[in-house]
Every structure is written in structure tokens, then in C-alpha cells.
Design a protein that fits this description.
Layout (H helix, E strand, L loop, with lengths): L2 E5 L1 H10 L6 H10 L4 E5 L9 H10 L3 E6 L3 H10 L3 E4 L19 H13 L3 E6 L3 H9 L4 E5 L1 H5 L3 H20 L3 E5 L7 H4 L5 E6 L1 H10 L1 H16 L12
Parallel strand pairs: 1-2, 1-8, 2-3, 3-4, 4-5, 5-6, 6-7, 7-8
Helix pairs in contact: 2-3, 2-11, 6-8, 10-11
Amino acid sequence: MARLSVNVDHVATLRQARGIDEPDPVWAAVLAEKAGAHGIIAHLREDRRHVQDRDLAVLRQVVKGRLNMEMAATEEMLRIAGELAPDIATLVPERRQELTTEGGLDVKGNQEHIKQAVARLNDAGIEASLFIDPEPEQIKAAHLCGAQVVELHTGSYANARGPSAVARHLGALDDAARLAARLGLRVAAGHGLNLVNVEPLLKVPEIEEYSIGHSIVARAVFVGFEQAVAEMLALVKTALTQRPSEPPRRRL
């Protein structure tokens, strides 16, 4: 069964815009889990632009499901992860000038460094996930680094316009998910997903988890956080019933 994990970064972004103590991303996590979310995601950036150290410390205490700490593969973040002990840590690329994560981690080009970071996480009892573009070479490199999970970057798919472009990017994600599964990696997907564009991805059986944040926070402005999570979760559950009836796909 596929899972929905909710990213609370953008709740923290709203709080930091005023430099006060509300809205609290911890409370958003509580409401998300009350609505049925299977996990909570929080990205502790080096510049602390949204999520703060305090947020993760409290989240570790209150989250009942899986806590996923998104982080750069730096010495500081590896130390914090070791102390915090999230259930899983997702290594992501990070540039100070970007508004949000703009692409996948270059695992192939930084294989030794990332392999060492994965080993440190695993030695601390933390599963390691790598946020990567849906490219065969990056998936193979993730496997060689010893990661347990790959999260496929769905930004290009989410931003695609026109049927042919959407189909091309969806096909790349489909192929990437199958390759990752063949290599023994668990597969997640995230970035730019919403109630409309997530549905085709729900038909890819190898994807076990969907990481969604901004669209849920945006929807929550109008219907409330718990309702926004419940709507996304209901869509996930409904779409998953279509998986067994799908025709066999070509093999890699």
C-alpha cells in the first residue's frame, strides 16, 4: 500500500515571514497525522530559512508515524541527524539562492561523498533516501551508494505543459521507478505534486510513497489543514484501487 507523507516546510515559511511563533509546523504535523498521513517531512536548510532546529526537536517527540528529515549531505546536518534520530533522512541538493529545491542530487558526480554520508546515517540507525532526477545513471549510482530509498524528483513532470511533454516525463518516472525497484531500492516521488497531477503517478505500482507539501498547505488556506490532507489521502486510496486492473507493461 502506498503512503502519503506531508511536508510542513511551507507552514514554517509563513511563520518566518513575520518572524513570530505562528503558524507552528509542529501543529500542522499533528493535524496531518490526525487526518491519516503516514509520515511527516521537514527540511532543515543550512540557512534555516523556514524549518528551525527547535521544530525538528519537537517533531521528533510528537510525530507518531515516520519522521523524514530532508538535509544536505554536510557535516553539520549529519551531526544533527545523528543526534535527532529521524526514522529516515533524505539527502537533497541545496543552493542558498533557490526558492525551493530545483533538481535532484547529483549522486553519480559525488558518489564517494554521498556513499560516506549514507553509511553514517545507516550507522546511526537511520534509513537513507536520495532525492534524484528520474535518470538511470543516478538510480544506479544511488544503488551503489547503499541507499535504501530513492525519491524521484517530479518537478519536470509537474511543470510540463501539453500532452506530449506530460507523457514524456511521466514515462521517464515510470521507467525510473521500475529500474530502482529492480535494483532493490524502495521508491518515493515528490515535488510539485497536487490533487490533479498526482493521479497518473498513483498508477505506477513501484512508487510506495508520495511526498507532498506546498499544494496541501495552499489548499489548507481555504479548507483547513486536516481537510486538505484528508482530500489528498482519499485520492491516493481511491487511485490505488486501479492498480491491479492495469495491463502488464513492457519489461526494461
